Amino acid sequence: MRRPVARKLSVLAVSAAVVSVGAAAPPAAESTAVEKVPVAVGYGGAVSSVDADASAAGIEILRKGGNAVDAAVATAAALGVTEPYSAGIGGGGYFVYYDAKSRTVRTIDGRETAPLSADSGLFVENGAAIPFAEAVSSGLSVGTPGTPATWQQALDKWGSKRLGTLLKPAERLARDGFTVDGTFRDQTAANETRFRYFPDTAKLFLPNGRLPVVGSTFKNPDLARTYAELSRKGVGALYRGDLADDIVDTVNHPPVDPSSGWNARPGDLTAKDLATYRTKSQAPTRTSYHGLGVYSMAPSSSGGTTVGEALNILENTDLSKASEVQYLHRYIEASRIAFADRGRWVGDPAFEDVPTKELLSQRYADSRACLIKDDAVLTSPVAPGDPRDPAACDARGTAAPTTYEGDSTTHLTVADKWGNVVSYTLTIEQTGGSGITVPGRGFILNNELTDFSFTPAGPDVHDPNLPGPGKRPRSSMSPTIVLDRHDKPVVALGSPGGATIITTVLQSLTGFLDRGLPLVDAIAAPRASQRNQTTTELEPGLYNSPLRARLEAIGHGFRLNPEIGAATGVQRLPNGKWLAAAEKVRRGGGSAMVVWPAS
């Protein structure tokens, strides 16, 4: 049942446009104490992130004539200062770009890679998997960073400003400091024990041996100097030279406090691993949903294929007319099935035969959609299908496991006055990454390699996500851009949250496109996340609502998750206006800004 979407979206645009005139960044000379609001409407471009200082950095670049790519890099660099436990130059990510002139979407895979010496036994010790918590805070977990190379690749292809210019706001923020909020303090407190294992991390993030105080100014002069070095020398300085040597030494000889008793297992990262790292420019995934084009990341991320397959499963359901229970039931079951296929088929395509085209075919989605019943719930784990040879309603076979992914990461979304759009998710994996700070450099190294499966799932299960030399671990990051029938942007969004990224993006998209919610409300709506597990995670707004009992009556089981994701997005409005939207509450609320607010 295909429905016209254009009229509905124009209504959404009008209703959303009157929500708020929003906020704009102050001129560069003013204080960085910027008002934090979740929605803004105006002209000249828009930026949405989790942090006001970071959004202001992007707006500063747009005001100086930079384009969406320039502003995205500036925002990301600032997030490396204010969100150092979620992102930074010690990590990686996925960059999705819409070019207004050609009306095309392109992507950069800046995912971290395993050392060239890695094999399937990377996390196996004495015949058994290393405990996850021990693997995280170790050199073994650190992959070759991809974020700096992503920035340079994006600028070389589509940017208009020099990297040094774009790093200036972040360098200034690191040097002069930002105001500590409750989220930053809480995240530090959650990591305090393991941060104390590493003296350089403790010195930086536990000033004077104590947790940072809310309202105090937090400075990172080491990171300011590192950004200044990258400005002078280019990002090649991180992959060759003294900075590269510092990273290698830190991974292979983690600077642990001997008195802590912590076994910070060394990694095996080499200068060659850094020198040979390359981003991948590749075509996005594309799914047609009710006449719209939904574009996202292809593998090594599973985001585009899994969100896309779920949308295809929902294609023939009119979610706009469904009751709230029917909508949530269908959404949960589509997620369950798509995750079953993700676990079996998606890994790094340089190592695995990933049937991306087949996973995104409507024919395959239809063969899986018939498993969904309105009055019953599928039993998890659901077995994967075979997209290469679809069989209707086939539920035979053995399910692949869902590997754990940290719930940190951050997402930013940018649009410019020319109509270019960026949806960019970047990460150091879980909150606080590996916990290991490169001495004197001011940034934490990632723990992305723990996104690999530690051991094979079993003799009858093929797992495409085991470690390998130079291999990219599977990700769930789902930076997404939706285009209309004329290949013009409708909305762009994304989220952090580990494997819940996929369900957050899927639920936000269906809330906006199908349920008629303004973008900021689609982002704020209480979330459910089903990842082919026996129970579905619910945020309190659903867990404590009457909807839970009505879904349980069908057969659903639930468990409480206090917070799922932290999305940001932008929406194109008529007459050159943009709407930026962020979280109202999650992670302390996000920051939406436009260059010139509408009156």
From TrEMBL:
Substrates-to-products reaction catalysed: glutathione + H2O = L-cysteinylglycine + L-glutamate; an S-substituted glutathione + H2O = an S-substituted L-cysteinylglycine + L-glutamate; an N-terminal (5-L-glutamyl)-[peptide] + an alpha-amino acid = 5-L-glutamyl amino acid + an N-terminal L-alpha-aminoacyl-[peptide]
Positions bound to L-glutamate: 111, 451, 475-476, 498
UniProt keyword annotation of Acyltransferase present: yes
Signal peptide: 1-24
Enzyme Commission number(s) of this protein: 2.3.2.2, 3.4.19.13
Keyword Signal: yes
Single GO BP term: glutathione biosynthetic process
Pathway named in the protein's UniProt entry: Sulfur metabolism; glutathione metabolism
Region Disordered: start-end pairs: 455-477
Active-site residue list: 409 (nucleophile)
Any Pfam family: G_glu_transpept
Post-translational modification: Cleaved by autocatalysis into a large and a small subunit.
Keywords from the named record: Acyltransferase, Glutathione biosynthesis, Hydrolase, Signal, Transferase, Zymogen
Listed GO MF terms: glutathione hydrolase activity; leukotriene C4 gamma-glutamyl transferase activity
Listed InterPro entries: GGT_bact, GGT_lsub, GGT_peptidase, GGT_ssub_C, Ntn_hydrolases_N
Family: Belongs to the gamma-glutamyltransferase family.
Oligomeric and partner information: This enzyme consists of two polypeptide chains, which are synthesized in precursor form from a single polypeptide.
NCBIfam families in alphabetical order: g_glut_trans (TIGR00066)
Protein name: Glutathione hydrolase proenzyme
Gene: ggt
